[in-house]
UniProtKB/TrEMBL annotation:
Residues 245-402 form the DUF5648 domain. SUPFAM superfamilies: Metalloproteases ('zincins'), catalytic domain. This is DUF5648 domain-containing protein. Coiled coil: none annotated. InterPro entries: DUF5648, MetalloPept_cat_dom_sf. One of its GO terms (molecular function) is metallopeptidase activity. It comes from the Bacteria.
């Protein structure tokens, strides 16, 4: 069962959270949930939750159990001299010696209630992305609200503010075992507030840690391996995988779709289509896939993850993706018009237990010789029922399993 983060907006008294903004913060919750394998004890129905928010002590009771974590969201008008975009924290009262005390004070941090407040005065600085599955459309003078939401939820989950975290801080550095191992045996430098990773510190030159102190304009920060390692060090069971988008283009001269998980290839096709060298229209991120079959923290194999091979059909100009070793070998032996491109990405032949996936449908266009890949059951059914020159392939159309969009 996936880790569940629920959001409650009843304390958003100034109406900051439109449906669009709720969708973005809930996607941030889904991103964190996708990495966390824990199953916390549910908060029972009828329990009175007491906590301060917007400067007032509140009491809330739910008719149903809360599994696993509830986060109350509010927006406040902060003074102009306070540059804070948001503030996230956990909260929970407990009886000494109880299981609840161990969940807060112990080495395995397990929050059941969180509070995130956003600064409505900073509205002009934020970008509320209507297409959060892409990150190349954030204006250079704006800060990404999805990244901000991920950052504050990271604090609710305990990064930088819990006893389990603080016990592993020495001389201004975080010394958790998993984090130090990931960093080549070196501790992680912290900001002077000891609640954040040192600003700009990263293990990957292309991505700052999500839980450093500042937000870069015009960019999106997602959880990095370092952020996930810190969660592991404060007691979470983490499944660290790298999910990358597969971009879908339409070749309008020949009438087929082109798919790529390679960002450089995507950029090249997009730019060459803009100047007329190529004839492709960019459609969207179609789905997400694994860039590796290894857990990025432990280095262990991800159970069930298999290579997906890519072939180029020189006759049609289209590409074929297959997870089948039998089909790969057959194409290499018998179809001389196909060039082998190698491993395109990794996916699952059957539904895995530890990661949420969706079926990917595959159909052959018998007129063009190209293949259609889609996770949309509606698109699959429409093409199957209305275009008789498309043949369903795989197990009732399912070729393998991929990760859905954000």
């Amino acid at each position: 069962m996936a880790f569940d983060i629920k959001f409650d907006y009843r304390f958003d008294t100034i109406g900051f959270f439109t449906d669009e903004r709720k969708t973005i913060i809930e996607q941030a919750g889904d991103i964190w949930s996708s990495y966390i394998q824990d199953e916390f004890t549910s908060t029972p129905a009828g329990e009175v939750l007491r906590f301060p928010i917007n400067g007032v002590e509140q009491e809330v009771t739910f008719d149903e159990p809360i599994d696993d974590l509830i986060i109350f969201i509010s927006s406040v008008e902060l003074d102009d001299d306070r540059p804070t975009l948001g503030e996230g924290t956990y909260y929970g009262d407990y009886i000494l010696g109880s299981d609840r005390e161990a969940r807060i004070e112990g080495d395995n941090f397990e929050p059941w209630l969180g509070i995130v407040q956003f600064n409505a005065s900073a509205l002009d600085n934020l970008y509320f992305d209507p297409t959060p599955e892409t990150d190349d459309d954030i204006p250079a003078d704006k800060q990404d609200f999805l990244g901000l939401s991920l950052h504050e939820i990271g604090h609710v989950l305990g990064i930088g503010i819990t006893p389990a975290f603080n016990r592993q801080v020495n001389n201004g550095e975080f010394t958790g075992t998993q984090s130090v191992s990931l960093n080549g045996g070196q501790p992680i430098p912290l900001d002077s507030d000891l609640n954040h990773i040192e600003d700009g510190y990263t293990l990957d030159e292309n991505s700052d840690a999500l839980l450093d102190k500042s937000f870069t304009f015009g960019e999106r920060n997602l959880p990095t391996d370092l952020d996930l390692a810190i969660l592991s060090d404060i007691g979470y069971e983490i499944f660290a995988y790298d999910a990358v988008p597969v971009h879908r283009f339409f070749q309008y001269e020949r009438g087929f779709h082109f798919y790529t998980a390679n960002e450089t290839e995507r950029e090249n096709v997009f730019e060459l289509s803009l100047d007329g060298t190529l004839q492709y229209d960019y459609e969207s991120v179609a789905y997400r896939v694994l860039s590796s079959d290894k857990d990025s923290l432990t280095g262990q194999n991800i159970e069930g993850a298999l290579p997906v091979y890519r072939f180029f059909n020189r006759d049609t100009g289209s590409h074929l993706y297959t997870i089948s070793e039998v089909e790969k070998d057959s194409i290499l032996r018998t179809l001389s018009n196909y060039s082998f491109d190698g491993i395109g990405y990794y996916a699952f032949e059957s539904e895995p237990q530890d990661i949420d996936t969706v079926p990917l449908y595959r159909m052959l266009n018998t007129r063009s010789g190209s293949h259609l890949f889609t996770t949309s059951e509606h698109e699959f059914n429409t093409v199957r029922d209305t275009l008789d020159y498309f043949n369903v392939e795989g197990n009732e159309g399912v070729t393998y399993y991929v990760i859905d969009n954000l």
